[in-house]
Model the fold of this input.
Amino acid sequence: MKYLLVEDNHELANAICSRIKFDGHVIDHADKLEDAIAYSNTGEYDLIFLDIMLPDGDGRSFLKHHRDQKKDTPIIVLTARSQVSDRISLLDLGADDYVTKPFDHAELQARCRAVLRRKAGTAQTILQFGDVAFNPLAGQLSIRDKMVNLRNRELRLFELLLNARGQIFSKQKLIDRLFSLDEDVSENAIEVYVGRLRKHLEDTSLKISTHRSLGYRLDDD
Done:
């Protein structure tokens, strides 16, 4: 998963970023409204954490701008306001959920899982494709009931391709989704990860095909 955190409290932001990275995900951090809009306009994210009180504006304007562009990226608001009217207004503007500061990271994780399940339109935890089973919330892949140990990037690559089976991803698109903006990555790295993942998926119903000059696609036979 790739996250965007919009938060001007650097102590809190560092704590959230560290935990998200520890869980094996990618996260970009913006501490100003201007940067948050720039990030969302140039990158694709699976989920956004949004603070409301920012040094150069109100997070509500980001939320409204995002929804006006017809973007359906789930947004969880991080707010110090506990009044019911404030929470209702955020939900009416298009927020998917909110957590009230201070909060425990376990609660934030649980709300992330719930929001992502709702977006997927299912409460299903395990995705089964023939002899391949994937638990996206736990980040676990098993083939013929045997757990497969994937490196983090391989796991996230598999999750990305699996969630968009039949869609072709260019190498640059995969770099944008698998790495944060401050990481310098070559297209050769994507080739390495795809090669490793293909070896794990040998003799299964899932195949990664190469489309010359276009990119890669995961198909379910």
In short: The radius of gyration is 18 Å. The longest helix spans residues 105-120.
